[in-house]
Amino acid sequence: MGITTEDRLAIGELLAMHGHLCDSGELDRLSEVFTTDVTYDITDLGQEPLIGVEALAAAGRALGDLNPVGHHVTNIVVTEHDGQIHARSKGIGINADGTSASVTYEDTVIRADDGWRISYRKILARRAPLGG
Hints:
Layout: H1 5-23, E1 34-41, E2 50-51, H2 53-63, E3 70-81, E4 84-94, E5 100-112, E6 115-125
Parallel strand pairs: 1-6
Antiparallel strand pairs: 1-2, 3-4, 4-5, 5-6
Organism: Kibdelosporangium aridum
Domain SnoaL-like: 5-122
Protein name: SnoaL-like domain-containing protein
């Protein structure tokens, strides 16, 4: 398949858009980032995976004021393996009380008719330094 420079830029913007939409409360636009049948694996956070973009939006609405006020993504690495495109990135969440948390996003992205979309996302909490 081959990942072009344009693909890498588009995937980076896709990952960034997630934070912009969540932070502005535009959860009805999450289909611009995720496939409609996305698997959003949050088992490392002690919850069952969410299936589908509507489940993601509903979970965000249910969290209400417990949502971070800022979702920031950085350190994006895009790779191709066995014909699939993967993106690994770091997420930093800033809470209303000033506390923060760090996660690793492991995404599978696909090229849809309307651009790149995340079809699978696994969130891994960063709880200890040096991967411990």
